[in-house]
Design goal:
The chain is of the alpha+beta class. The chain has five helices and eight strands; from the N terminus they run E-H-H-H-E-E-E-E-H-E-H-E-E. The chain has a single domain, classed as Aminopeptidase (3-Layer(aba) Sandwich). Strands 1, 2, 3, 4, 5, 6, 7 and 8 form an eight-stranded mixed sheet that branches. Strand 7 and strand 8 form a beta hairpin.
Length: 166
């Protein structure tokens, strides 16, 4: 039986959880750790009211009533046309339980129901097998390899592009 997963807007009480998610290398995980960041980052974004808007947004992923991560979308442009590009961060304890797959499905359903954009895409490092499987289970198709697009751990790494159309 899979856990019930929900998406909801981020509230002020969620900010410490989200800041921990990006501040601790163990919580961020090897694919999401981007080095130390401003400890006021989430609070600043929340106070500015920039967490959900016309150009994209970020919402909390909740499982069992507890925050377990966040998922975001922003506009990307190909050949003069926009699409949505997704990103996800899960807490260490939430990984490997199907939560990411469910969160992707929920956000895809939301974006296709609430916006007119035709395409949704997601990028990940080619070695991030768990995220690749989650995207495929959520209905995304592998579209190609992007050579040398991510710099992490002192090395340039390849990425992969996944896409989904209405």
């Amino acid at each position: 039986m899979t856990e019930e997963v929900k998406l909801r807007p981020i509230g002020e009480t969620d900010l410490p959880f989200l800041q921990q998610l990006i501040s601790d290398p163990a919580d961020a995980g090897s694919f999401m750790w981007q080095g130390f960041r401003d400890p006021r980052e989430w609070r600043s974004r929340w106070q500015a009211g920039s967490l959900i808007g016309d150009a994209g947004g970020t919402v909390l992923i909740v499982s069992g009533g507890d925050p377990v991560g966040c998922i975001s979308w922003d506009r990307h442009q190909w050949f003069g046309r926009h699409c949505w590009s997704l990103g996800i961060e899960l807490a260490r304890a939430a990984r490997g339980r199907g939560i990411g797959t469910q969160a992707h499905r929920l956000l895809v359903d939301y974006l296709f129901a609430q916006t007119v954009l035709h395409r949704i895409e997601a990028y990940t490092e080619s070695d991030n097998i768990a995220e690749r499987r989650a995207l495929e289970k959520a209905g995304f198709s592998l579209e190609g390899t992007l050579r040398g697009v991510a710099f992490r751990g002192g090395h340039w790494r390849d990425g992969v592009l996944y896409g989904l159309c209405r």
